[in-house]
Amino acid sequence: MADGKEDPAVFTSTSLPSDPRLMATVTNAYLGTRVYRDILHVNGVYNGAVGDTHRADIPSPVNVRMTVPAADSLTETFTLDTRTGTFSHVLQSADYAATHRLYAHHSLVHLMAFSITIRRSARTTQPITVHLQSPFVPKSQDLDLKQGPAFQGAYYVYGQTLVPEVEGGPRPTVHMLWMPVPQSVTLRGEEQERSWEFLTAVAESEEEVKRSYSEGLALMAMGSLHASHAHAWAMLWRGCCIDLDGPLPLRQALYGCLYYLLSSIPPQGKRGFLFHGISPGGLSNGTRGEDYWGHVFWDQDTWMYPNILLFYPEAARAILEYRIRTLEGALHNAHEQGYKGAKFPWESAATGREVCPEEIYGAQEIHITGDVLMAFEQYYYTTQDQKLFMEDGGWKLVHAVAQYWCSRMEWSEEEQCYNIKGVMPPDEYHCRVDNSAYTNAVAQRSLNFAANVARDFLVPVPEEWVDCAKKVKMPFDAEKKYHPEYDGYSPGEPVKQADVVLLGFPLMHPMSSEVRRNDLEMYEPVTDPNGPAMTWSMFAVGWLELKEVQRAQTQMNKCFSNITEPFKIWAENSDGTGAVNFLTGMGGFLQAVLFGYTGFRITKSSLRFNPSFPDDINKLKVTGISYFRNKLKFTITKEQIKIKVTEFSWDPPLSLLEAVLEESGQRFPLREGRGL
User: Fold this and answer.
1) Residue 520, domain CATH
2) Model confidence pTM above 0.85
3) Glycoside hydrolase family 65 central catalytic domain: from which residue to which, for each copy (predicted)?
């Protein structure tokens, strides 16, 4: 489905961005860096106490720049190939081409590698020398690095982080092996082509780093190190793709968003991989004072996660397991504030304790706790994975969240309802408000889900859960027929970002089409045009629900102001400020297509879909939708919808899939390899 001949998944430029923050990133679930940056990061390795905790900076041996001094008539290109997860730099002359290729291995997550290849393109016999500039120094402001003995030709350093997140807490140890990089490499006169490969391994134990390095060396010896990485990416794309017959910039944006998000998830088939969450700027960013210091927010659970869940529920489970492992920290947070149960931190790192540098957010932006539980709900209704809840800690978390919401509510005799007071809604321009519509709605949803899970597992449902869910206040203006953002909100007050519009999606809070429209029209003109990137995607989803396709497209078009060239890195704000490689904005944009254009909705009993997309899109293909352990492919045009089961679960009763037309009730059984 091409728009011209340009590959929408390959981003090429003759120059690099002037702002180094906008360089392409090469990342896997464990290691990440920006191209030409002198540091890399390890997932889950932080240094600093509480509000000062940040991703530990590790010196990067792969920060190498290729040059050919005094060369005439060289052309230069820089390419990010999202299909293979590879960045390349090419110097081309009439006589030769020199290629520098860099990647973070997708399946062997402890490895990063780069190669230099020189190939003659003319019949010359002159030696060709390429210089390699490497500012690498094995020192870190966050680790007490020590030199160890060389291993299989590699240098070796190791060291602990300097300051634990909490007093007496763990200080992770990082071990790194890397091949020394010469100042230059030369293609001799009799050689036509030659490659040099350079390997780096990073792990949290000596045993693992040596095992990984040895595995990488073995693949290098067979000439298949990069091929194995590219194969892992090919398998990833095979199971997950959104493509459309439409404008090239939109297709490029989709591939870019998927690449950066998929770079962050655990490799397939490696159950038990200890995953430490996804921060707004990804693993390539998050040093002290940068991109929210690598902390994990609601950005993960609300904005990125739904896309991951629909394609790769195993990776979605790993995100939930991170929240389960940090439950003790959440229990501590609630107790510290005088409440029962678990309060998840606004900013989370290794322990689940609140690590936000500014107290107001950790104290008031409590909707995060409901956002976390909504991710568990979506997972449960998409997979029916009861083991996560009954054996792997999920139920304990659900129970603790329900306890928290009940203890956080106050009964009002005057209004005969429960209030949640003194909060900051998603709209961070307002604080210490009472009855934030979004916060109260997500609390209600948490309690309803907790009760439903209890019933499924034949656990008695506390009456308090039912009562609080039923009687929590939902601000509503009966005259204007819209939801005020909080008690006392005046129409026209500026709003930072998507807030009340989230009631319709993703919360799916019950309301009429008239109220949904009124909410959109009330908040769209007063939302800050320079606010965070994910906002306009949610307005687009709302208008698509109402079949107002052009109004939706106006909102979608605003997102392109946050996409930078040439590598499609997103900035948090349209003026270029805020976090970069802003996965939150990318997640929102993907949802606008994956849940907006298709109309997908995850409910307790079904995966609903109701497509609607603009005139300049003729066909939409979504490959790899996962539902009840089956894989589905949707092909949607304005005339028809085709559904094909590409992988079938033989695990009854999950295997009994059928498509149902809601208006007529007509049912169509779905079987593997057969379409509808």
Assistant:
1) 1.50.10.10
2) yes
3) 284-490
